[in-house]
Amino acid sequence: MSTTIDAPAPAAVTATGVRKSYGEKVVLDGVDLRIPAGSVFALLGPNGAGKTTAVKILSTLVGADAGEIRVGGHDLAADPQAVRAVIGVTGQFSAVDGLITGEENMLLMADLHHLPKAEGRRVVAELLERFDLTAAAGRPASTYSGGMKRRLDIAMTLVGGPRIIFLDEPTTGLDPRSRHTMWKIIRELVTGGVTVFLTTQYLEEADELADRIAVLNDGRIAAQGTAEELKRLVPGGHVRLRFADPDAYRAAAAALGEATRDDEALALQIPSDGTQRELRSILDWLDSTGVEADELTVHTPDLDDVFFALTATTDSTPTEENAR
Ligand SMILES: Nc1ncnc2c1ncn2[C@@H]1O[C@H](COP(=O)(O)OP(=O)(O)OP(=O)(O)O)[C@@H](O)[C@H]1O
Known about the structure:
It is a peripheral membrane protein. The protein is an alpha/beta fold.
């Protein structure tokens, strides 16, 4: 084993101890990330958590104050040009020029990547087709819908054949159909071997797409893992019993002393992991105590629960945070 040369890591992106401040404001306070090649990684966080800043740093647009970053096997600080050659970025700010046609936007990208004319035309035609933009290719991009512009933006990013793509909030503002189209596009990219780093405020989107998710809060990664791993971090699974009759509710609440009461909704919550075995034992228990609910629902923790649990301290304890 060599002690001087790093073994080629099977990671598309690694970041260690990344810090960034704007003046007094600490935006990233020691961020560590590792993203395996060919996977989808979602960075989740509330507004202002530092997601866009992280994308800008990892894509060489903004310098970090400290930390080590490798993207596509290249040291970002030592060789930003090499990093730029293997990545594509689409942000909340679109690169699309509305005054020229979709095809012209694409050909411009081909020129920027110094593709020979014929090769550029071939790649552009192929991408327009793939992103269902061939029919609209001759129209000024300003006439495109939000979803079409977003597709054009990604198609433009792909002209250079990037191996790693950063998508900053790729579906914000899109209607459900366009959002699903975007998800399909992202899945296809990954099938083609591309690594996708996306930021999102939609927990559903991270759950749907990402192999791994990191929750950014107060400039730090509050938790990182698969959606299932993150869901296991928080309690919150329960069976909820709702009653129409206040007397039945009160009787049940008395019989089920350990249940959490919601007097307004006439509902009781019993902690449960949602497994068949536990449900059966709860139902047996209800039968034996003579409780008959009008409605029974099973609630398993979702990413919302995780998100709220991990980002809950943001507003509540600023003085304590500052004091440390
Ligand atoms: N160029 C800058 N100068 C000063 N402060 C900045 C700059 N860029 C970002 N910030 C601050 O850094 C913090 C994080 O911003 P960032 O845009 O990275 O957050 P975000 O998680 O992407 O938020 P959102 O979900 O709202 O897009 C914010 O408080 C923002 O005001």
